Structure formats: C-alpha cells, structure tokens
Amino acid sequence: MSDTTVVSDLLIDRADGLLVMTINRPHRRNAIDLPTANALAAALDELDDDPTLHAGVLTGAGGFFSSGMDLKAFAETGERPITRSRGGLGIVGRPPRKPVVAAVDGHVLGGGFEIALACDLIVSGSEARFALPEVKRGLIAAGGGAIRLSQRLPHHVAMEMLLIGEPLAASRALELGLVNRLVPSDQVRSMALELAHAIAGNAPLAVAATKQIVAKSRTLEFDEAYRRQEEIAAPVRASNDAQEGARAFAEKRPPVWRGR
C-alpha cells in the first residue's frame, strides 16, 4: 500500500520503506520555485526523521527531471529557491542523511543537474543529456555542481563540462561512471525503485553511517579519514543490528533490522 500526498508542486509517495518524491511542474519543465524547494526540504527532513523510511527516490513528472531554478519566478519577483534547512533547491546545500536515488530523463541542466549530483545514485534515461551551462550565462554552477562534478569525473572531463558548458550524452555519462544505470525512458522510475529497495533491504544504521563516512572523508588525508571513520563506525559495530546480521548469517535466514 502506498500513501500519496501533494505539497506545493511535489508529489510524495510512501511505500515499503521508501519515500518517492516527484517534482510536478511540467508546465515549467519542473523548475524549482521557493514553495517547491521548501516542500522538498521538508520531505527530506521526513526521510531522515522517520525510522520506517530507509531510502528515497527523486524524479520529475512529464518526461524530464528538472531545469533547476525557476528563472521566470526570479525575473518576476526576485524569488530564489533557497531554503533555510537545506540550502538551494531544497537539497544541494545539505543532502539527507539517508540515501536518495535520482531518476532522471530529458535535459538535466544547470540546477537540475546539481540536484541529481546531490543524490547518491543516478538512474538515467537513454536520451538524457547532462550539462552545467552557467558560464554561457555569465554565472557559476554554485549549487554544488562545480564541487561535486570535479569529485566524480576525471579533472579534464569535469573542466570541459564546467568551462565550456556543452551537454554530455547519457551514454557517455555511463562510460564515465557519472550514472549507475542507463535504461529506456519508460524504465527509469522502476529501475530507481529497484535500486532504492536494494538499499532499503540493508541495515539502516550501517547504510547511513557508510554514506556519512564517504561524505566526510573526501577531502581528508587517509590517516585522518580513517580516524574519523572509526568514530562513525564504532556505534554501528556495537549495535543490535550488527549482532542480528551475524546471527542471521549463522542461522541462514534473512536479517530483521531494527535500526538500533
């Protein structure tokens, strides 16, 4: 059974331990205005705070993901979709503690690409194209795009995308490891759900701690990263879930995770 609510232009479905968030502004190519950014930030707070939710999926309605900031709203009112709790676009400043899979298709440009980069896995439609074209408009990909892209691609590939601003085909994104799965457009959502269910089937404390270790160790020397990793890993190692994992393995049965 799923439970669907609508907050601003965000559809939120809860089912089987997943929170599925769909940006529902196809008339604006799913551009994010401030109410939608606030709704997304609140949904991600729910994902983090609800112990029955283990992973999220973020996608867009109408055959494409998001075009980023709603420039029309900005031109008309000066509104910028920056939230207090999670920064720009409701996610790029502070992504959730729990994993989120982005299900993308169509043109994934600018802030829309930055939203996808703020997620942990990306499932792409075969016709998707990725770009950070801000330099073509006198701007900078300052919603985390320049930082995250340079962490995930070889230096010269990232610099080409950032300094020239031309789009990258989905097939090339797969070759470079920028996306996890490349599927036909009509399978993007189902594949993202499949990956999210695979994450949700694992021990929630261990999943959250693993994501935290990866996030915190990117810019550290190995010795310091290893020390901080132990600070995060030790409580998980001492948890009931860790004991349950060992018992389930020995007893040849599926584990029953309690998140403690």
TrEMBL record:
Gene3D superfamilies: 2-enoyl-CoA Hydratase, Chain A, domain 1, Lyase 2-enoyl-coa Hydratase, Chain A, domain 2. Residues 235-260 are annotated as: Disordered. CDD domains: crotonase-like. It holds the Pfam family ECH_1. PROSITE patterns: ENOYL_COA_HYDRATASE (PS00166). It comes from the Bacteria. SUPFAM superfamilies: ClpP/crotonase. Belongs to the enoyl-CoA hydratase/isomerase family. This is Enoyl-CoA hydratase/carnithine racemase. It comes from Nocardioides massiliensis.
